[in-house]
Request: fold
Amino acid sequence: MSPFPSLLALALVAAPPPASGPEAPVAPAGAQLSPLPVEDGASPWRFALTTGVAAWTGGPEGSAAKDDHPVLLQFGFQADGAWPEGHGQAARLRLRLFTGRESDIYVPSDLEVEGAYMIGRPEFRFVVGRVEVARYPGLAVQALFQAGTLPCFDGTVSLAGDTMELSYFASPVELAWVRYTSGDHLTHVPGWNTEDDRPSAASAARVRDTLFLVSRLSASVQVDFVKFWSQPDLLLGVEGTIGWQLPRQPVALHVGARVQSYTRRGVEKDTTAKSSELMGFATASLGF
Reply:
């Protein structure tokens, strides 16, 4: 018997499996607090892209909604960098937007853009600088601006034998500024300021818990809030996703839902108003 078939079989068994590529995002790219892992020895940067569709319901009571279409297109981009040398450094840039709420389908409606620079280890990092700008027309928020620095911090820790990942962010003190949509924008009243006259001190926090299940399945839940100190403005959000990573590919499919509410200053002095909305989405994400 020729030895070549046996040698070929031995070589096939001993050969390492083909590379499966970087891990796919655990949440749609651009989602809040969904860090991308950086592989050792590879490029310090990881990137991810997302596209999909979403549907929403809700919105501010009494506002004109004739141009508010219920089906949206979703796009997302994320770039995470990490440099472990010395005390460690990291950077994050993310963008998540939905289009189609207005009549022009490619005019961005819901929008989140965030940039941050951190120092420290992945488990605990000091956020040296962070800026985030968001727009939520379904909550009567035309623009919400946040900027923070120390003592802001965040991190990601693995739990339960690497079957769970907990990411957190806390900003005890930051600068926040808001402007409501045109129908809910405040007008000057003697002795009272409009909502966008000046920035305010605020506190913000986010927590995302991801559970890695069998057969490349994962489930993720996030809670976040922003609270102005001297005003009633309060943003609350809860988001949940279920993801499935394609075999041996850095691609993941996600379905999920987000419910959020915003308490704002009312049109009448010393009153408040509240809006809430529910959004469901289905996306495909590519990590590279």
